[in-house]
Amino acid sequence: MIPKESLLAWKVFQKTSQTLNISRTAIELDLDLKTASRILKELEKNLGFSLFDRSSRPFKMTQEAELILPCVHQLLKSEDKLSLKLQEVASKPIDVRLSLPVNMTRDDLFPVMAKYRELHPKFNVRFLNDCDHQHLLDGETDIVMLPYRPENANGDLVLFDAGFSFNMLLASPKYVARNGSPSCVEDLKNHVLILRDSRIYPTTRSLEHADLCVSLTSDFKLVYLGDAFSCRSAALLGHGIAVDLSVAYCSDDIKDGRLIPLLPGWHRPRWDMTIAIRKEDAENKPLYEFASWFANTQKKAYPKRWGPIFEKYGVTP
Fold first, then answer.
1. Same structural domain, 156 and 305
2. Residue limits of the HTH lysR-type domain (predicted)?
3. Is the distance from CB of 242 to CB of 171 less than 8 angstroms?
4. How sure is the predictor about 100, in pLDDT bands with cuts at 50, 70 and 90?
């Protein structure tokens, strides 16, 4: 580094202007004498003039040194302020907004987040519900979990794979008792299918079973509701067969028999779970690292969380 661009060189000069003794300067700055003397001489050489008259004891400042000393005091005072500000910033809590699908299970979320907080005590997460990627781009959240892979032609987003999930066809015992259980996918045309329709959830346009795919054409009786709560309520009240209800949202209903899986193996196209942040935030190391960690955590959790119930009812990737 060029001596005059080195803060240490100016600190040696400033301290020597006070001590007028290079040995004393070395002691107070915790430098060895040779290093302190060399730094001062290299600074003088770089400046093109002497800072001290060494022929006298103690040293005597030159006229040039006296002229620049006030500026050096100001420089090092600013450096002290910067150091304090950096310490303040480093100790300041980091607040991040994370939006999750409203029907995502929270059962293991808080223990997982508590472990992350132990490792990163200054990292705070505030949870939001049901933002989509446009909400993210509009600044309404900092990180978003999506049940789809958004288009990213302009590269405005950084996307992390968070695994995938499935739904099952679900109806209440009341509905089945009144309307019967469909024996095949074609038989669904004789039933009311309840689907979701909102910004964050891609509209279901087909049903799948392994390599089979059936389009939900106008031959099917389709009823669109806006949110998971409405779909679940309609299914529990026996108004139709729910297509878009997540297992996370109604696992207790399935276990307790309030909702019955129908046509084992048939399901809407899988949800491609995605964590997204804005491209401009990719340089924000704490935020980027958390988004990547959270995506990996969810990707590992999905098979363990829902694998057994999917297997039980014949839903396979």
1. yes
2. 10-62
3. yes
4. very high
Judge residue 252's burial from the number of C-beta atoms within 10 Å of its C-beta, 0-12 exposed, 13-18 middle, 19 or more buried. exposed
Pick the closest to residue 315 from 257, 256, 245, 219 (CA basis): 245
Domain containing 197 — which CATH number?
Answer: 3.40.190.10
Query: What is the token pair recorded at 261?
Result: 């899986």
Whether the Cβ atoms of residue 132 and residue 199 lie closer than 8 Å to each other: yes
Q: What are the backbone dihedrals phi and psi of residue 90, each rounded to the nearest 5 degrees, phi first?
A: -65, -30
Residues 38 and 110 in one domain: no
Q: Who contacts 93 (Cβ-Cβ below 8 Å, separation ≥6)?
A: 122, 123, 124
SS (H, E, C) 165-222: ECECEEECHHHHHHHCCCCCHHHHHHCEEEEECCCCCCCCCEEEECCEEEECCCCCEE
In the chain, the number of structural domains is 3
Phi (first) and psi of residue 78, to 5 degrees: -65, -35
Q: Which of 155, 152, 131 is nearest to 141 (CA)?
A: 131
Q: Radius of gyration over alpha carbons of the chain, in Å? A: 33
Taking only the tens place, the pLDDT of each residue in 188-247 is 999 999 998 887 788 899 999 988 999 999 999 999 998 888 999 999 999 999 999 888
CA of residue 142 relative to chain centroid, distance:
7
Q: Which ranges constitute the DSSP H helices of the chain? A: 7-19, 22-28, 33-47, 63-91, 109-119, 133-137, 173-179, 228-236, 247-255, 285-312
